[in-house]
Amino acid sequence: MDNKITTVGIHQPNFMPWLGYFYKIFQSDIFIFLDDVQLQKTGASYTNKVSINIKNESSALSIPIKRDSGIWTIKETVFANNKWKKKIIGSLQANYAKAPYFKEHKEFIFELINFESDSLSEYNIHFITEIAKKLNLQTKFVKSSDIPTTLTSTSRLIYLIQQVQGNIYISGSGGDNYQDKELYEKNNIGLIYNKMPQFKYNQYKTDKFISGLSIIDAIFNIGIERLQKDLFIKKS
Questions:
Q1: Cα first-last separation, the chain
Q2: Cβ burial, residue 226 (10 Å; 0-12/13-18/19+)
Q3: Comparing C-alpha atoms, which of 31, 9, 17, 19 is closest to residue 231?
Q4: Which residues lie across from 18 on neighbouring strands?
């Protein structure tokens, strides 16, 4: 009998995500990008916005996407233009140029930002997987669009987990409010929650720690090596 434990995380491919997103990847043996779900119809979501430190405050940067009539998925979403890349780089230059690890990592980060793709999903997945490589995360990545099904809600998540031979599911920290726990139990899938340990670091020109910022903030402030050592390390 195979008693192997395979932990699965599932999340939409967000834009330049915060540390908690990568901590979920870190805890997962397999991470599924939920790329074929409907995109939020109006406003900006975490798939096309991110927060950075601007003048000691968490400030959101949004990227323009085309919004045609009807319903479309994240995978089907394309950028309205590519002018935003220059603006994002300009904002990072203006606010992080004197951060301790900016010079060391700016080329890597700017190359990721300048990645050529019109696809929101492809762009975000490329950014996330390249950061994961730098952090030496050993997680396998899969796209939900490669595992088609007509199931929805919890039933769909369970189906995705089963298709990658998973038996533990890492839910978002707020998932306890909507998860159908009995359905997971019925399908022999353990349910745990993504709870990143408290992790604060020195932020350039900021006395009070600003949480929830893009992982770029941590990379420019403390560097990839320390980030990997202090947060993304397996406990024995």
A1: 25
A2: middle
A3: 19
A4: 214
Tokens of 170: 């890492």
Mean pLDDT of 32-51: 89
Question: 216 near 52, Cβ under 8 Å?
Answer: yes
- Of 190, 183, 189, 185, give the one whose Cα is nearest residue 151: 183
The reported pTM is 0.94
The answer to whether residues 137 and 26 touch, using CB atoms and an 8 Å cutoff, is yes
Question: 124 CB contacts (<8 Å, ≥6 apart)?
Answer: 13, 14, 15, 16, 47
DSSP string, 10-55: EE---SS-BHHHHHHHHH-SEEEE--SSBPPSSS--TTSEEEEEET
So what's the pLDDT on residue 178?
58
Chain mean pLDDT for the chain: 92
Residue with tokens 């919004």: 67
Scanning 114-180, the segments in alpha helix (DSSP H) are 120-134, 153-163
**Per-residue tokens: 224:** 């990839």
Percent of the chain with pLDDT over 90: 82
Token digits of residue 234: 């397996």
Q: Cα–Cα distance between 151 and 141 in angstroms, integer?
A: 21
The candidate with the shortest Cα–Cα distance to 199, out of 226, 172, 234, is: 226
The per-residue pLDDT for range 48-107, each reduced to its tens digit, is 999 999 999 999 999 999 887 677 899 999 999 989 999 999 999 999 999 999 999 999
